[in-house]
Task: inverse folding
């Protein structure tokens, strides 16, 4: 059983993981090394594909002090060689005596680290603060276990549920504060997906920007994905050199998701427009909804979602997880439910 000192170290490891920038397609991981007397030796974190994993980062900081130490890690140490070597073996070679970890690795290609450690005589304590550790990588865990990216759909609408005026204009419905808030969520995804209709209507850049509305560096940008069969002129901003762009000439969600899986994408940020969102909604592949409601009415125009509902029995519930005022707007975060038609009888 983990000691109070180890639980406290796990909290610090979780904080170290949360403090990192987007690490997708890899998970966020933090590691704290403790001396036999419980004092902290080093803290490490993973910072993205190709960089040292959290355990190796901590071991490099600790040096010879790692021998006989306890490693407290948010995720089971990996057991495979990719761009970097297996962390389980690195811990063994460093002479670590005990490993405490939170989430069991759900990735079949990387799991098994605990078994390797035990076989080498290292004491292992799994499942410490497992719920918090799993929450750290909800989207990544979903992607590696389901075989498709996690999909977050973002939309902005008036109080009467309209995202564009009858003439197609939609920029801007919500406030500047809401648009800044969106950047925080965009940065957590590794692909931003929009339909050709929305791109032609608004000419968005589909990038992550900082507080001064300046694009982040190219290497920190998610992949921009434009979906649809309509040709987009090459002078549109989505083709600038700020971020990479992928065109997918299909609106079929299965085709889009398969293409993105092949490109190593774990978390999609889906926005604009209602036809593309409707296709994903109808296919049942939207996993989270983030909606921004402006305190305004249009009275007529285009709905935020073009689905296939024909009767009230087609109503689907949204399980609300968060409701927050962002400037003058309301931000709603929820998870789509799966309600049976007979529930309305």
Result:
């Amino acid at each position: 059983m983990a000691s109070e000192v180890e639980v406290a170290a796990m909290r610090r490891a979780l904080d170290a993981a949360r403090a990192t920038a987007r690490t997708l397609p890899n998970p966020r991981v933090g590691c704290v090394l403790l001396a036999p007397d419980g004092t902290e030796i080093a803290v490490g974190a993973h910072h993205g594909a190709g960089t040292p994993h959290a355990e190796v980062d901590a071991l490099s900081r600790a040096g010879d002090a790692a021998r006989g130490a306890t490693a407290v890690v948010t995720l089971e140490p990996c057991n495979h060689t990719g761009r970097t070597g297996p962390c389980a073996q690195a811990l063994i070679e460093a002479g670590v005596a005990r490993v405490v970890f939170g989430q069991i690795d759900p990735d079949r290609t990387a799991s098994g680290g605990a078994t390797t450690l035990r076989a080498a005589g290292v004491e292992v304590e799994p499942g410490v603060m497992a719920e918090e550790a799993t929450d750290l990588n909800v989207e990544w865990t979903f992607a590696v276990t389901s075989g498709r990216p996690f999909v977050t759909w973002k939309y902005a609408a008036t109080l009467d549920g309209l995202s564009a005026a009858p003439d197609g204009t939609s920029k801007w419905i919500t406030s500047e504060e809401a648009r800044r808030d969106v950047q925080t969520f965009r940065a957590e995804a590794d692909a931003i997906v929009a339909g050709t209709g929305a791109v032609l209507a608004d000419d968005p850049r589909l990038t992550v920007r900082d507080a001064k509305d300046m694009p982040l560096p190219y290497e920190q940008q998610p992949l921009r994905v434009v979906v649809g069969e309509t040709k987009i002129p090459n002078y549109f901003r989505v083709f600038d050199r700020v971020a990479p762009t992928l065109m997918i000439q299909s609106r079929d969600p299965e085709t889009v998701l398969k293409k993105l899986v092949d490109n190593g994408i774990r978390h999609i940020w889906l926005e604009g427009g209602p036809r593309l969102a409707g296709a994903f909604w109808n296919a049942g592949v939207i996993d989270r909804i983030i909606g921004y409601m402006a305190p305004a009415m249009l009275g007529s125009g285009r709905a935020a979602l073009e689905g296939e509902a024909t009767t009230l029995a087609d109503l689907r519930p949204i399980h609300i997880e968060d409701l927050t005022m962002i400037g003058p707007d309301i931000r709603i975060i929820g998870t789509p439910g799966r309600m049976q038609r007979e529930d309305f009888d």
Notes: Residues 4-18 form the longest helix (15 residues). The first strand starts at residue 30 and ends at 34. The two ends are 50 Å apart (CA to CA).
